[in-house]
Amino acid sequence: MRLRDMIVMSLSNLWKRKIRTLLTVTGVVIGTCAIVVMISLGLGMQKTMQDSLAQMGDLTIISIYSYGNVTAEPLDDEMLETFRQLKYVQAVTPSYTPENWGSFTIKSGKYEFSGQITGVNFDALRLMGYEMEEGQMPDSTTGYTDMVVFGSRAGFDFYNPKKGWTNSDTPNVDVMNDKLELVINKTEETSKKAPTHKLTATGVMVEDWSRNPSPYGVFMDVNYLRSLEQEYKKLNGIKEDKEKVFSYNNVYVKVDDMKHVAEVEEQIKAHGFETSSMETIRKPLEDQARQQQMIFGGLGAISLLVAALGITNTMIMSIYERTREIGVMKVLGCVVGDIRAMFLMEAGGIGLLGGIIGVGVSYGISFLINSLGSGGGGDTGSIWGPGGMSIGGLSIIPWWLVLGALIFATLIGLISGFSPANRAVKISALTAIKQE
Amino acid sequence: MSLISVKDIRKVYRVDKEKVVALNRINLEIDAGEICCILGTSGSGKSTLLNIMAGLEKPSRGAVMIGKVDIVKLNEKQLAQFRQKNIGFIFQSYNLMPTMTAVENVAMPLMFKGVLKRIRVREAKRMLKAVGLGSRMLHKPTQMSGGQQQRVGIARAFVAHPKIVFADEPTGNLDSKTTREVMEMIVGIAREHKETLILVTHDRDIARYADRIVHLVDGNIVSDEPNQSIMASTEAAPPQPAASEIEQNVDMTADRLA
After folding, report:
1. Domain total of chain A
2. Tens digit of each residue's pLDDT (9 = 90 or more) over B66-95
3. Has residue A387 got a pLDDT over 50?
4. Domain of residue A340, residue span
5. Which residues of B44-63 are buried (b: 16+ CB within 10 A; e: fewer)?
6. ipTM for the whole complex
7. Residues of chain A whose C-beta is under 8 A from some C-beta in B?
């Protein structure tokens, strides 16, 4: 028999028993919908969760701390280079603050800045995606010496020491254009004049508190800052402790992708450092989401199992009704393989049809959930935490879910039809035609 | 050599613990083109013999040679293919597909053979015209009388030009006038196409249409003789195809099945 004839016969057999086919298909539709909608809700949750985490901070940044751990190796430039060589690591920057508070003052006219100065690696910061409100970060063309970048509140951080703090709506200093001068402070009043450096502000960062290090205070190249610190120590006669090994207390590592964070973090921990990343928050949340997804998927699978029983039942009924027809077909020379193929096509056809309609209905349900969820503006809008955290949809149907659902539904049909098809094949031609 | 040769066929049914002998050492040779009637009362074993000759049932013992092939030894798939090519069937209860039109019913054996739709529909229409149903091609079985349904059955049996057509009480459900029409049609087409027809009946009036009558009683052949009435009326045996031609065709089948 030709394949085309077999398909036509199978379809016409389904068509002849419209009501029964429709009911059986409906079973598959419900099963498919259950699975697709449940999984799509799970995916939506996962996405909402990730979006929420992304708002809390960059998921690909690992913070490293050296304090409080005696077994740790020194977190020095050599160690930073080791981290840079790790697979998946894109950038490494220390976040260095001088040991002595108030070592430096930045002056601009009558205003002074004595807030936090942080030493960083600007190239790393650029890779970590810091955005500039104005200007740019220093790079190898501008050089790093005497270069400084301000946090978003830069102009407001300057104050007039004679007047004390005043609140004003306009910044006191235009850091990009006003003259800036760094003063290395003296601890004691001496006749020696305090050394100064002329500073150039190359840019101002955008305010973004989710970033680490946060764009706050003043940023300088870490090596420049450390050289300034040496100058300060020399000026004030502070002796270096020979026993003490230099170690940054805080370093940030940027990993290329979220999925590699855990692996890189593990390697860093092996050197004895304390680390933290969004991974420690993300992981349990993701596990929880996966668990929920599995429960949802399981519920869907149960409904599809019921649908599979429906298909088997329909096919067995159909075979009882058609015993005589099958017998006649055999007598007239229909090869048993063709009979089996036709029955499998019928069962698979029910599955595929149910799958197609099911996916279509799922899209409708998904659309309804999403429009109700985001349009309602109520608690449905967010699953994680209170109030409007959700960004993406609540129900997401990716293409692989559609394809998977269609294949799965067809497969369910074929499996359900397998035993009835074999039963049809075993029908004796003789007893079938004797039946009156 | 004969087209069909039944050799030492024995068929025993087991009913509970009792053995029932349906056929007891049957030997029968049927030539190509012959119209042979197997006559017997119910329980004589005539239907069992037909089923065994058509490969629908396996004998307890013995061989059924059709051409050079022993169909007792074929498996189910080979038998199906053998039937596609060589055998046509006419049933007492017509056995038409209730949901199909007359044309679709007649074209069915050709569909199983894998003949293209365009060609098989053309053949089926030609056959339906030959049985006088040219105006009822798109009717379903329920829209036709018994005689018309059986004519569809006849068209279906002959459409693939089989070498042998089996007819099991083909007029059992028909009135006497229709019976005459149907029998004349079956015999007429078989002679026209030079096909072998094996007719199974309990009715002596039906047996009149055959060239030869094999009388079966309790699983034994009690008489096997030419039909006197035909011999008397036509004086000559019907024309028969050259034996070599038939053998060649059967050989081809044998090769295909091997």
Report:
1. 2
2. 988 999 999 988 999 999 999 999 998 889
3. no
4. 3-57+283-434
5. bbbbbbbbbbbbbbbbeebe
6. 0.84
7. 1-2, 5, 12, 16, 324-325, 328-338, 429-430, 433, 436
